[in-house]
Amino acid sequence: MAEQTERRDCAAPIGVFDSGVGGLTVAREIMRNLPNERIVYFGDTARVPYGSKSRETILRYSRQIIRFLRTEQVKAIVIACNTASALALDEVEKELDIPIIGVIKSGAHVAAASTVNKKVGVIGTESTIHSGMYDQLIRAEDPKITVYGKACPLFVPLVEEGWLKDPVTETVARRYLQELLDEGIDSLILGCTHYPLLRSLIGEIAGPDVRLVNPAYETARELERLLAKHGILNTQAKPPGNEPYKFYVSDAADKFKRFANSILPYDIETTQKINIEEY
């Protein structure tokens, strides 16, 4: 019986959630790096953006979403949102009996290890930057590192609109990044899961001497280690014919599906809208 239970747990999906489409960058890295895993994704498109909301609100949203994901029998949860990772992870982790991780710790660790001149930049939402989580985690690894944070609140709506290569986005990005570049940073954390979708633009502006740290990729690798640690890493290929990935949103399902199909290595056939306030 124990062996059957373990096999069932390994085959259970991973729950991934974000305020909108940004967490798809995390889902994309999980698909690439853990191809045997199934995913249930929830994008809170009715209540995006999270970055300007209070800790109490983000905590309430996160609990509602986690309650929904638990109805999908997920074996682990990834908070694919820097704001929710900063403001809610520590609290909801105490309330769960399954593994849960956010996107901040792994990115902070890589940035601390990669900087040479001890100057690390972080761009993120207002809530993420004001929480000081990246600064705290990076300096815990190396107190000699100086962390420069910059809130970039316009990036999320620009990404949600699909303006990834628009001249307006480039103008905004140059204005945001100049302050950090003037400080001489050599590493830059893309501290919001929407931002990897602007990676090529940000990299062009930052230049070749600044390493971009993508927490989405680092989180996928950390998830693999976490699942293995708990004995629930799925080593069996997904059976053909089964739907490996399920997508839910709180609003604008068709718009979400179009955007997701433009960036994922997998074509989404359906996206279901649910009333998250019921959870």
Order of SSEs: HEHEHEHHEHEHHEHHEHEHEHE
Task: Identify the strand order in the major beta sheet.
Answer: 4-3-1-2-9-10
Structural class: alpha/beta
Number of strands: 10
SS summary, helix count: 13
Unreliable runs, pLDDT <50, ≥5 residues? 1-7
Helix proportion range: 40-55%
Shape: globular
Specify Rg, calculated over alpha carbons.
18 Å
What percent of residues are in strands? Answer: 15-25%
Largest sheet: 6 strands, parallel
Give average pLDDT, whole number: 92
CATH fold-level label of the largest domain: Rossmann fold
How would you portray this structure in words?
The protein has a six-stranded parallel sheet with strand order 4-3-1-2-9-10, with helices on both faces. A four-stranded parallel sheet has the order 6-5-7-8, sandwiched between helices. It is an alpha/beta fold. The protein contains 13 helices and ten strands. It has helices at 2-11, 24-33, 55-71, 82-87, 89-93, 104-114, 126-131, 133-141, 155-160, 167-182, 199-206, 215-229, 253-263, and strands at residues 14-18, 39-43, 76-79, 100-101, 119-124, 146-151, 187-190, 211-213, 245-249, 272-273. It has two domains: 2-103 and 218-278, Rossmann fold (3-Layer(aba) Sandwich); 104-214, Rossmann fold, CATH 3.40.50.1860. The longest helix is centred in the first third of the chain and has 17 residues, at 55-71. α10 (167-182) packs across α11 (199-206). 47% of the residues lie in helices and 15% in strands. The radius of gyration is 18 Å and the shape is globular.
